[in-house]
Amino acid sequence: MNNFERIGNKVADLFGLPSTTPYGNADFKNVEQEILKLAQSKNPNDKEQVKTLLRLRKTILDNWARAHEKGLLPVIKEFNLAVERALKDLYDLAHRYNDYMNAFDAGIQLEARLQFTNAYPRHHPFQAADRTAVWKALLENGWNPLFQPGLTELPLSFPYDAKKSFPLFAGTYEKTHLALWRGGGFFEDAQDDEMEGYRFNSVFYHLAEHTCFALTDFIYVRDFEPAIDIHWSEQKSYSRLSD
User: Fold this and answer.
1) What residue numbers bound the domain in which 38 lies?
2) pTM of whole model > 0.85?
3) Which end of the chain, C or N, has fewer beta carbons within 10 A?
């Protein structure tokens, strides 16, 4: 039994899913190897080829996830809860920073974002050196232009967002049912009643719909990093804060 077969069996044991996963497919492995080669070369002329490969990779993994949505729902729920806790911590921290800085200068502008850490998700059932390499390639090569503001589609900006409520910032101000995403949403053909009615926050929606991350890339993440950008007159200081 090779390594990918062992991984597939581990996934099956954890989530009650078939052991056959895209990660063990030779064509899929070739796609990822090409992505890693392009990440190492960092040739700007490869941009269009990279986009094609990333879309292909995402499509393969997301099609598999759609077919096994019921087994993945517990993991998705855990991800949503972890994100909402991290967003609340960021929201509170940004307000404290803003209040403190404005005590000295009302002209200060501040942007707060939530980021993935550079570490490969420790809860992911697929743990291997090539998984870490792919994760770093997805994070560090500028292939995710809509991901640059962070895990939310837009950062929390002060003074503009000073009165924005947390539910509005996190996208939890109303129940977001999958039915609202029909005609293009990630689970537009949801097969499970629980999946159909589950509320997803804005981070899940943004990552699944607007970035090149596949669902199985990010739903195992439980560690996040807050980042604060402070603009003071024409000067800018950047503070990346650990949890």
Assistant:
1) 3-240
2) no
3) N
